[in-house]
Amino acid sequence: MSTPAGVVVFDPAAFQAAFPAFATTSADTLTADFALAELYLNNTPCSVVQDLNARAQMLNLITAHIAFLLGRAASNNGANAAAVGQIQSAGEGTVNASFVAVQAKNAAFWAQSQYGLMFWQMALPYRTFRYFPAPCYGRA
């Protein structure tokens, strides 16, 4: 099956070269993370991001963000597995921390990793208001 024009094709090896923190993550896992990334950013010819190079960078950043978030839960020692959201407060004696739940609609969700925050900033031009005037028809 060939890929239609105007769609970014995920390359796990190129992704791992660009994001060495995920060099030991399996290609299957990264491909699944990319599929999740496509739910956040339309990867069809109808996407608001028409520049394929820009869309590829943005999808890779989303993929890295997802891999980072899911990787915390998969760490061998379980460290940070239950930590979801941003730290609101922390203590030292008898160690405690509280987290603020975040929603994907705002920057707080993306600010949980450097990859997500980079995507959020890169997506700024596409989040602004876009005006499409009504079509103009000539009078007969």
Describe the structure.
- The chain has 140 residues and is mainly alpha-helical.
- It has one domain.
- It is 43% helix and 6% strand.
- The protein has helices at residues 12-18, 27-40, 52-73, 107-110, 114-122, 124-127, and strands spanning 86-90, 97-100.
- A hairpin with a 6-residue loop joins strand 1 (86-90) and strand 2 (97-100).
- Helix 2 packs across helix 3 (52-73) and helix 3 (52-73) packs antiparallel against helix 5 (114-122).
- The longest helix has 22 residues, at 52-73.
- It is flat, with a radius of gyration of 19 Å.
- 18% of the residues are buried.
Shape: flat
Number of domains: 1
Q: Calculate the mean pLDDT score and round it.
A: 82
Note the main sheet.
2 strands, antiparallel
Number of strands: 2
Percent helix: 40-55%
- Order of helix and strand elements from N to C terminus: HHHEEHHH
* Secondary structural class: mainly alpha
In the predicted model, the low-confidence regions spanning at least 5 consecutive residues are none
The portion of residues forming beta strands comes to 5-15%
Helical segment count: 6
N-end to C-end Cα span: 48 Å
Short précis:
43% of the residues lie in helices and 6% in strands. It contains six helices and two strands. The protein has helices at 12-18, 27-40, 52-73, 107-110, 114-122, 124-127, and strands at 86-90, 97-100.
